[in-house]
Amino acid sequence: MAREARVICASADLEESGRGVRFEASYRGETAAAFVVRHDGRVHAYLNRCSHIAMELDWQPGVFFDAEGRDLICSTHGAVYSASTGKCLGGPCSGGPLVKLAVAERDGFIVLEDPGNG
Ligand code: FES
């Protein structure tokens, strides 16, 4: 049986290409740091884990975007990821993507779909 979606935050908490919201997700049976951002009007969530080394990406809590607000960038060595897909765009991620989580926007809230199976 699928688990119910879990509310992460209010829609209003996520500005276009602004600060992300950090949360914890269940991934492969473990609790893992994750985050959600808004980009091109849609919400996208990923594990907060660089594919280069398993470090959290944010420069400061919730700061994931580059200076232009276009791509996600790892604060440790500068790997660059697409905000909409998590695909590695350059740097030490060497083609390795972020782990994408299923999120949706419903009734003014951002929800994590199937939170037990991230
Ligand atoms: S840990 Fe992210 S680029 Fe090295």
Describe the structure.
It is a single chain. By secondary structure, the chain is mainly β. It has a single domain (6-112), classed as 3-layer Sandwich (Rieske Iron-sulfur Protein), CATH 2.102.10. The protein has strands spanning 6-10, 21-27, 30-39, 42-47, 71-73, 80-82, 88-90, 100-101, 103-106, 109-112. A hairpin with a 5-residue loop joins strand 6 (80-82) and strand 7 (88-90). It is globular and about 35 Å long. The mean pLDDT is 94. FE2/S2 (inorganic) cluster binds at residues 50, 52-53, 55, 74, 76-79, 91-92.
Features:
Rieske Iron-sulfur Protein, 118 residues, binds FE2/S2 (inorganic) cluster, 40% strand, mainly beta, single chain
Task: Note the topology.
Elements: E1 6-10, E2 21-27, E3 30-39, E4 42-47, E5 71-73, E6 80-82, E7 88-90, E8 100-101, E9 103-106, E10 109-112
Antiparallel strand pairs: 1-10, 2-3, 3-4, 4-8, 5-6, 6-7, 9-10
The protein binds FE2/S2 (inorganic) cluster.
CATH topology category name:
Rieske Iron-sulfur Protein
Largest sheet: 4 strands, antiparallel
How many structurally independent domains?
1
Classification by helices and strands: mainly beta
The second-level CATH architecture is: 3-layer Sandwich
Shape: globular
The span between the termini is 15 Å
Helix share, percent: under 10%
Number of helices: 0
